Amino acid sequence: MNASQPILPSAFQRLAWSNLAAQSAEQISLAAAPLVAVFALGATARDTGLLQTAQTLPFLLLSIPLGIWADRRSRRNLMTVAEAVRVLAMVAVLLLISMHALSLPLLAMLGFLGATGTVAYSVAAPALVPSLVPREAFAAANGRIELARSVAYSAGPAVGGLLVGWIGAGWAYGCAAALSALAVALLAGLREPARTQAAQRHFMLELRDGASFVLRDPLLRPMLATAVFFNIGFFTLQSMYVPYAVHRLALSASAVGVTLGAYGVGMVCGALSASAVARRLTFGRMLTIGPACGLLASLVMVATIAVPSFWLAALSFFLLGVGPILWTVGSTTLRQAVTPERMMGRVSAINSTATYGARPLGALLGAAISAHWGMEACLVAAAVAFLLQALIIVRSAAARLSRIPEQGAAAC
Questions:
Q1: What is the C-alpha to C-alpha distance for residues 356 and 231, in angstroms, rounded to an integer?
Q2: Using CA atoms, how far apart are residues 82 and 352, in angstroms rounded to an integer?
Q3: By CB neighbour count within 10 A (0-12 exposed, 13-18 middle, 19+ buried), where does 6 fall?
Q4: What's the distance, CA 177 to chain centroid?
Q5: Following DSSP, what letter does each residue of 141-191 receive, concatenated?
Q6: How far apart (Å, rounded) are the C-alpha atoms in residues 235 and 229?
Q7: Residues 131-150: pLDDT tens digits?
Q8: Who is most buried in 16, 55, 239, 295, counting CB within 10 A?
């Protein structure tokens, strides 16, 4: 990869800024939801696991339909409408809090609706990037998108925890709604390049083609499996972390927000170092850093069972951010490089369905394990999932890539 960074066009800049606003809104609301559930509604570890499931279930249910929509129609319009739905959901939570009428089922239902904006971004933005920037700028553009997401992951949980702890949950949801509305405004002004529309076929035929392409490709298949197990492990941990931090680590709402914010700090550090790492390592070697850091992070969190510590928890989340952000940049670049443009939305949707769809499965697993064997058992189960994802990528053809491949290329 060249040391010089290509100049990214203004249309992409607007997409990147809208992504920052939308991701910040998501992270503030995701951080606020379990804190509100535990401190205001008396939720248990099982309840927060089910809440996390509701907030991630749209990835499993909606990624494929939205991905096919993204291949058939305007990707900008898809993101704009979905983000507007998030605004309405956050405003509804704010009103319910102000009227003292919020309940766990309502919080879960509105969290489900709000997550549609994130699903739309996850399938449409990667498909839109190749039409906004030249091929040689894919990695730089993806790095910029992930840097924006990293900033959101860094500031969002901390801001959400501080707002809930200091001045109430309503302010957190009000802030999230305002940021989401800003994303809608930025997207509305984005000019999407016209593209040739392929003949529309039956939904299942298009889905079959996309799935077949991913599962037969020797590079994309192990990437998908790695991401699935990473997300299962991460959300098994995430589903019970807030009650674990409050009841076992004795952390306040603000301290919990800071430990979660360490995840975003790690992402920022990883995103800022991505170019330097890419210049010094082969492309395949860079892909292995994220899964390795994920495994190390899970072992650090397991260590808090024996040594309850704010600092160990923060270090674990920092490691979960600093390495996997390199994975996200690399895996997205690889997917864009080898996927035909006409299938970009479907392939992104299949990736989102499998990887983000693993999130509610991980959250449900966390809820079930914590209910039967306790929260500490969830940490061990998460570490097992992180071990599996590290083994998959290290043994794959993708780990042996010397550079970003051409479309249709196999491992080199």
A1: 7
A2: 16
A3: middle
A4: 19
A5: HHHHHHHHHHHHHHHHHHHHHHHHHHT-HHHHHHHHHHHHHHHHHHHHT--
A6: 10
A7: 788 777 777 777 778 777 77
A8: 239
